[in-house]
């Protein structure tokens, strides 16, 4: 029994290019000087026959079309066992609307995320008799596909943007934002595309993992503000930065992990550039910058 | 003053390939033997500076990225004046979720369609202070962009799949399904991506139009059933077929239209094949099979 991972999309919400963004990364992605990247989703399997999609990105139709392992195996047969959601953000739930057309799979998420879906009738396009919505509590293992075990791990985060009202707690630990531990054949991977800060609990859990795919949204906390593209820090958006004393590179110092991959990278992130100093710094710290189509077998 | 049209996506809901479909068209689109097509949307402009998107398809991010006329003109400036919706189907509204990131534009639709959006908080990701939702009554002209006039035209159709309850009236004429008349500099185009049947009223309106982009979902009414891919006829889905005595080719007989283009074509439609007899029949009747990127200037 092995554990296979395919990064379907390595970018954060908006993708690269983001539709309305004229930053140098986005402009270069439109003209082919930088490879375009699609929004945040991975697929995992233990047998390459039954797959689990972790987060349903708005780009999912295209992502599936270019991933042969996830092509139909008959007129209306898909090698898809289930979808698991880590929060209610648009970049992680909008792709559910692509998964219509009377296809059976299970949908796993916390009760809080299922409640968000239930309050939006548009998601009823997934027929409940074919797509059961299974609430899962944090810390309780479940089987998202044959041969796989998964466990939702609450991590610091916030409610989705479209549900923000008044003052927003940006590092809430509960059912709004989770990571996922996936296990097969003694191998352990963590998928954590959104995390507002490192905690002692999370540090202890990650210790000794074979693979961690982690929130790489921004290089620096004020990246969007300095570029004149927004008024929010990364932390206000519920994401810790890669660099700096409180950043992810520093936070992983002393955590023993087999492989570390950044996912959920914002279009403004300088690590997208193969030849930049930020990419060099990330790689020197033992990290891989995730890409659309990155495959890892444990 | 001229009238420019770009077909952003020529396929119906699901696109070509549709994620879970193993029909020969979809399989060929995955392997490159048939060109992939994205979901239903067009853009119109009178000056190439201010564009209107008619229907926001789930593929909109990608569609915009490959349409230079709709690229950002600054760090956060888009040449987009407004979006107009013709119904509440997923293939026409899901793309609104791509249009987030604090971009200003107006959103025009009937009150019935706005009500559907209002009942789904997920669409609140479009900040109402930046994206005003403007209700428009059928038959009343409005200005979706400088130099353009638009009028919603009720056509026979049904409520979106995700709102179907019990017996469904499939050729309702009201606010659920509309076509759009767009006018500039004396030129008239009709965009009607969904139409359950031809009526005398519609026939009279189309008479003398410079361009009609019309519902080409299915070639034959029982196409999905015969292919073993579904249990519904085209009419049950709210679409008249192209062929047959009650089909679109026959219905347009005697209507004098400058150019006729099929859009909203289902993945199963045999007219996607350049060399097939159905394509030849359609073209002999004076129709163009719309494609992603088709541009027409009137």
Explain how this protein is built.
The structure is a homodimer of 298-residue chains. In chain A, strand 3, helix 2 (60-65) and strand 4 form a beta-alpha-beta unit. Chain A is of the alpha/beta class. In chain A, the strands form two sheets. In chain A, strands 6-5-4-3-2-1-13 form a seven-stranded mixed beta sheet. Chain A has a six-stranded mixed beta sheet with strand order 7-8-9-10-11-12. Chain A has eight helices and 13 strands. Chain A has helices spanning 24-31, 60-65, 90-93, 111-118, 200-206, 223-226, 248-251, 277-284, and strands at 4-9, 41-45, 51-54, 80-84, 106-109, 133-135, 149-154, 178-184, 187-192, 211-215, 259-263, 287-289, 295-297.
What topology emerges from the helices and strands here?
2 copies of one chain form a homodimer.
Chain A: E1 4-9, H1 24-31, E2 41-45, E3 51-54, H2 60-65, E4 80-84, H3 90-93, E5 106-109, H4 111-118, E6 133-135, E7 149-154, E8 178-184, E9 187-192, H5 200-206, E10 211-215, H6 223-226, H7 248-251, E11 259-263, H8 277-284, E12 287-289, E13 295-297
What characteristics describe this protein?
homodimer; 298 residues; alpha/beta; 13 strands; 21% strand; globular
Mean of residue pLDDT values of chain A: 96
Supply the helix-strand structural class of chain A: alpha/beta
Strand order of the largest sheet of chain A: 6-5-4-3-2-1-13
- Please estimate the helix content of chain A: 10-25%
Q: How many strand segments of chain A?
A: 13
Total of helices of chain A: 8
Quote the distance from N terminus to C terminus of chain A. Answer: 9 Å
pLDDT < 50 stretches of chain A? none
Radius of gyration of chain A: 18 Å
Q: In what range is the share of β-strand residues of chain A?
A: 15-25%
* Quaternary organization: homodimer
Hey, which two chains have the biggest interface? A-B, 56 and 56 residues
Apparent shape of chain A = globular
Order of helices and strands of chain A: EHEEHEHEHEEEEHEHHEHEE
Question: Largest sheet of chain A at a glance?
Answer: 7 strands, mixed
């Amino acid at each position: 029994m092995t554990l296979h991972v395919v990064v379907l999309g390595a970018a954060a919400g908006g993708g690269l290019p983001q539709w309305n963004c004229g930053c140098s990364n986005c402009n270069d992605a439109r003209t082919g000087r930088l490879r375009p990247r699609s929004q945040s989703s991975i697929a995992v399997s233990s047998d390459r026959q039954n797959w689990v999609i972790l987060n349903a990105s708005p780009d999912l139709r295209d992502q599936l079309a270019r991933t042969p392992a996830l092509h139909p195996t008959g007129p209306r047969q898909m090698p898809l066992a289930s979808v698991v959601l880590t929060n209610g953000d648009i970049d992680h739930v909008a792709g559910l609307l692509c998964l219509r057309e009377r296809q059976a799979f299970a949908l796993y998420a916390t009760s809080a995320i299922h409640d968000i879906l239930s309050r939006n009738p548009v998601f009823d396009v997934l027929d409940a008799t074919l797509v059961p919505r299974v609430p899962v509590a944090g810390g309780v293992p479940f089987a998202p596909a044959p041969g796989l075990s998964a466990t939702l791990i609450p991590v610091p985060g916030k409610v989705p943007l479209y549900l923000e009202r008044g003052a927003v707690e940006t590092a809430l630990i509960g059912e709004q934002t989770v990571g996922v531990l996936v296990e097969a054949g003694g191998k352990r991977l963590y998928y954590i595309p959104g995390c507002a800060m490192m905690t002692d609990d999370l540090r202890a859990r990650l210790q000794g993992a074979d693979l961690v795919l982690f929130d790489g949204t921004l290089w620096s906390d004020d990246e969007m503000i300095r570029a004149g593209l927004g008024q929010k820090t990364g932390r206000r958006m519920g994401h810790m930065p890669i660099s700096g004393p409180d950043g992810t590179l520093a936070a992983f110092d002393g955590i023993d992990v087999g492989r570390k991959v950044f996912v959920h990278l914002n279009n403004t992130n300088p690590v997208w550039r193969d030849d930049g100093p930020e990419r060099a710094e990330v790689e020197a710290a033992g990290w891989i910058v995730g890409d659309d189509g990155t495959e890892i077998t444990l």
